[in-house]
Fold this protein.
Amino acid sequence: MGIEEPKFNLHEMQMYLEEKIHDVRTICDLELSENDYRRLGIKLKSLFAFANNRNFAEDFMLCIAVYWTYDFIYWNEKYARFDTELIQMYEELSQYTQRYQLMMLKECFHDFGLNSYQVDSGNLMQDCFRIIVRHAGIPKEETAAVLDLIDRYISEDSDVIIHTVQPFLPRKTAHIFSYMDEAMQLEVLDELKELLTAVEESDQDEISLCQRFPASSLLLIRETVRWQKCRELRKCSV
């Protein structure tokens, strides 16, 4: 059962996510459907609309973190107006309340045992964006295209690859990367290169890769294994 159930209010959504979050490494591993994401956004819009003090969202920080992550995963210009409304509601809060909410959001990752990737620039908004996009990762439907690109240049240095492939990244992945600084982009690229190298070893299956890469997204590992199997099938069919 997902959070799309009509009976789910925001509190029940938070409880549902708190239960599921312990089974994943990154928020994208939750694999929320687009309907889940849209319904969560509607509930959060109502929360912000009736905000009456700085603590109004404190009990729903995981919902906010999950929604924000999937806002990147399901990014689409078609829904920009709805997402802008949520941002405007946030911006209408006092600066003190905005800062408090961002601090709570950043702490939320630690509270639920999620990786915050040692992000600490001193700019709370920037830090939250960077943690969120790391949890968004590479959208599932774009993973194969990204791996094809990286594999093509895998023998090159990472800093060369990142500048070579950026113009050719799929739309959503390019949008996600645009919120990362170069150090984070290189970190993601190095992870992809290591995964690609490991998955080509004959004894590396999904379970062994999960053990070898304890910080990597379960979804990314699964999709990388799938990509390699498809690649081997293509070679056999030639």
Q: What stands out?
A: The chain has a mean pLDDT of 89. The two ends are 42 Å apart (CA to CA). DSSP finds twelve helices and no strands in the chain.
